[in-house]
Amino acid sequence: VLSNDLELAGPVDFPSTTGRSQTFRPTVAAKWRSGNWEWQTKFDYQAQLLSGEADNHWFSPGAKIAYRSAFTPAVAGELSLDQSIDKLQSDAFSSPVRSVTALSGGLVLGLGEASIVHPRLRAECISDLARPVTVHPRLGLRTPLTRTATLLSNFAFIQRAPNFNEMYFRNPPNSLHKKHIKREHSLQGDV
Q: Cys-Cys with 187: which of 3, 4, 47, 117 at CB 3.0–4.6 Å?
């Protein structure tokens, strides 16, 4: 991580409880391909049973469609659209429905002798945030150094949205609830 701006949900106190916690999390997913097209669907469900306290239930269906194509021997591209919905429900509270829609695009550009430049851009809209729309640029590079060594590097500006636990979880006295927490901003890179 090159730079990071993080707002924590705290302060948080987790006293020990005498109860037990059990989590059940099935996921159903499917993927289809036809030519340059790909479709994905999924459904996640999580039940967290806190004996003697509360039951929490999280639902998350989603779908993605992507198109990939090689335009020339040196240029290929991908465009995808993602949609997901999340809902957290408990004995004590319920979150609003979160709808996430993202449009992503990227290119793979061959620059001769195995050098590759891979720019990507993702625009994302998350319905329950004060600033719902963000843009996430990324850049990947592959550069041959010798016949047997290659340098790989990636750089990205990431704006991670707060998850449901950070925004809505309320199970007194173990509360993280901070409905207006901001996104985490970071500039990341690796070589």
A: 3
Q: Which amino acid is at 52?
A: G
Residue 126 tokens read as: 């998350």
* Locus of tokens 């979880």: 169
Rounded distance, CA 139 to CA 121, Å?
Answer: 9
Contacts of residue 96, Cβ cutoff 8 Å, sequence gap at least 6: 127, 128
Tell me the three state secondary structure of residue 126. strand
Check: CB of residue 2 under 8 Å from CB of residue 188: yes
- CA separation for the pair 180, 139 (Å, rounded): 31
pTM of the model: 0.74
Gap between the Cα atoms of 187 and 191, Å rounded: 14
Q: Would you state the pLDDT for residue 178? A: 65
Helices (H) and strands (E) in the chain, counts: 1, 11
